[in-house]
Amino acid sequence: MLETIHLSKSFKGKKAVQDVNLYLDNGESVGLLGPNGAGKSTTISMISTLLKPTSGEIKLNGINTVNKPGEIRKILGVVPQELALYQELSAYENLKFFGSIYKMKGKELEKSIQHALEIVGLKDRQKDLVKTFSGGMKRRINIAAALLHQPQILILDEPTVGIDPQSRNHILETVRLLNETEGTTVLYTSHYMEEVEQLCDRVYIMDDSEVIAAGSKAELLSILSSEDTIKLELSKINEDFVEKLKSMEGVRKVESANSQLKIIAKKGSNLISELVHLADRYQIQLLHYQTETPSLEDVFLHLTGRTLRD
Amino acid sequence: MGSFIKKDLLLFLRDRKEIIITLALPILIIAVLNFAFAGLLDNDEETTLDLQLALVNQDDDENIAEQLEDKLVAEGSVDEAEAAMIAERASYSDPVQALFDFLESEDLQEWITVHELDEVTAAEKVEQGEIDGMLVIPNGFTVESLYAGFTGKAPNVSLAYKMEEETTNNGTLYDIIHGFIDNLNYQFAIQQIGGSNETEIVQPQGGVEQLGEGETFTLAQYFTLAMGILFALFLAITVAAKTGEEIRQKVFNRILVTNSHPMLFLIGKMVSTFILASLQMTVVFILAHFILDVFPGRSVDFWLGVGVIISLFSLGVAGLSAVFTSISLRMKDIDAANGVFSAVVMVLGVLGGNFVPIYVFPDWMQKLGEWTPNGLSLSVLMEWIQYEETSSLMMPSLMLIGFFILCLVIGLAMYPRRGEA
Fold first, then answer.
1. Rg over CA atoms, chain A
2. Which of residues 34-53 of A touch B (CB under 8 A)?
3. Which of A27, A107, B43, B290 has a CA 20 to 30 Å removed from the CA of B29?
4. What are the entry keywords (chain A) (predicted)?
């Protein structure tokens, strides 16, 4: 349905997006994962016709939208990272304005507004000014404004930034609903791994302006099929102990935070007895031991050497 | 386009701070300035003056014609026949009586009290401060004045004004008397040129002279026009600032990803600015009128003329907002852009005479000010208040339309294409 081919964008010679190839099939939910500054928003801006690519193509059903941006605008709904709303207008007035500039009017517009409000669960607050809403409610109206013209493709650029867990769950549920029951194709960008894991069929991982990995969740996790993740909770941690751990056979990476340790080790290394022995030598009490199945977060760590929120 | 206009109007009307700045502040400033500077241009203060003038008449007004004829013959200016003819014509004139009539005229009567006294008493009273000044009509003044008037030679005697010390009241009295003498000389000169047989002396008008047959222009009117226009001009900055907010909040981007023509955004800004500026000026003028009685007893035609100028000036402000909006969309630093816009409007305000009357500036600045939309509108409104001549609206109207078209062209040329904003 939608694909980008060797998509690149430079600002004053500095590459913001480099050689990005991605595709979205009809009805799919695709995640674009990456830390801040990875190039996700620039990629989205090019797909949504806000920026012209320096090179490469964006094709919608085989038609190059760089030359015919009108084609994609008709079927694209964009939820920007910022709250792109008029704070001094009510939720209803905002939606009416954005709906009308999609050339909708009369009953059709009214029906769309009520439908969008129903999806985001703010029908009863439609007459209130947006500035009186909580952060989460504003985010939901931000989504509603992109749904008015019933887009076939919905692009959401980090739609849950800075909101409470309840609103976040509501938004994730809304996106899932749109994808599963309304058949909307979703491109969801985030630096929250768990959101992408929860929502998306396929994931593109971006870092430093490039796509560094792509595939279904299972495909990405298979990158780490040769590794185990061990989580330890200790009574205390000292540097010598961590250094000793790193030098143990089979240990590939050790991360420490407070009194917790995360060890990525070669699959089947069976480190438990050695760990207990080492802890005892350093008079450290082992409070908790857990072997984990790798997550996308671990995949990202494996690929880039740092966490998503670094 | 209606959606864009409605949105901009709603955003403005929901902003209480802007409403106060645009409507309440100019009214407040007009009221304060009017109160603080009352009387600077108004003639309402005439009645507060109470000038005391002592008049000492030492002139011998018996047989004026004979005295004049004798003098003309004695000085050898003319022959006897002509001297007799001049004396006959001069018999219709009486400069002293004209002075009395002038000082007791309706206009001056309200604020000058004339006391006919002898010289000693008058001098005493002036010295004691009971009287502001004394005017002495010396002996032979009538004959000398008429002689001087008919021959063009300088008179040997003249009116003498004496005062104890230089005060505003004394200065005013001196100016009035001096004005009378100038007028008297002028009348004689006219008579000589025209060869009129009758030398009836026309009295100069007392108080603040009116120009032509126009209405007086008051300080309250100046403040109302100046502030109304200035604050309407500020709307161009307000609109640009709101555009900045739309860019900052990425609402502009959201508009761009719809299939609506980007130019509608700019046109919406212009139309809403036009409506807001028109409404703002109309409300300020009407409120100022009701609160301060700024335009008393004016006709419907007068208000229609004011409406035309308001509309044309609002068109100019709309044009300016188009330029500011386009620049806002191109500038990376919105705050810097707003600072530049404020500076531009301030300069326009100064040049256009919205802060202080334009005549205090050097000529080149005055000329420059006439080319600003606000300066032009201010001067045309001032002229309209005084003369209500429809012809006076034509040229300024064309200039304001020209300013709008110029701004529109610049605004459109600078308006960013997709991806440039």
1. 23
2. 48-52
3. B43
4. ATP-binding, Nucleotide-binding
The alpha-carbon gap from A79 to the nearest alpha carbon of chain B, in Å, equals 8
Cβ distance of A73 and B258 shorter than 8 Å:
yes
Q: How far apart are CA A238 and CA A236, in angstroms?
A: 7
Q: For residue B205, what pLDDT band results from cuts at 50, 70 and 90?
A: very low
For chain A, give every residue range classified as CATH 3.30.70.980.
Answer: 226-293
Q: How far is A31 from chain B (nearest CA, A)?
A: 21
Q: What average pLDDT does the structure give for chain A?
A: 86
What residues are paired with A22 via a beta bridge? Answer: A4
* Nearest residue on chain B to A46, alpha-carbon basis: B419
| Cα atoms found within 13 Å of the Cα of residue A160, Cβ hemisphere only | 21
The domain spans of chain B are: 2-42+214-414, 50-194
End-to-end CA, chain B: 20
Residue-averaged pLDDT of chain B? 80
**H-assigned helices in chain A:** 40-47, 69-75, 91-100, 106-120, 135-147, 165-180, 193-199, 217-221, 239-246, 272-281, 296-304
Rounded to a whole number of angstroms, the distance from the CA of A110 to the nearest CA of chain B is: 14
Closest residue in B to A47 (Cα) is B257
Instruction: For residues A255 and B406, give the distance between their C-alpha atoms in angstroms, rounded to a whole number.
Output: 65
CATH class of B50-194: alpha beta
**Cβ within 8 Å of B, A 143-182:** 145
Percentage of chain A surpassing pLDDT 70?
97
* Interface test with chain B among A86, A156, A157, A187, by most B beta carbons within 10 Å: A86
The answer to whether residue A76 neighbours chain B at the CB level (below 8 Å) is: yes
Distance, CA of B226 to CA of B382 (rounded, Å): 10
Determine the residue of chain B that is closest to A54 in CA distance. B419
Count of helix runs (H) and strand runs (E) in chain A: 11, 14
Residue ranges, CATH 3.40.50.300, chain A: 2-221
Phi-psi region of B358 (alpha: psi -120 to 50; beta: other; left: phi over 0): alpha
Q: Does B256 touch chain A (CB under 8 A)?
A: yes
Which of A81, A90, A97, A156 to substitute to test the interface with B, most B CBs within 10 Å? Answer: A97
Share of chain B above pLDDT 90, in %: 20
Fold of the domain spanning A2-221: Rossmann fold (3.40.50)
Lowest mean pLDDT among A253-267, B42-56, B258-272: B42-56
CATH code for A226-293? 3.30.70.980
Owner of token pair 């531009």: B344
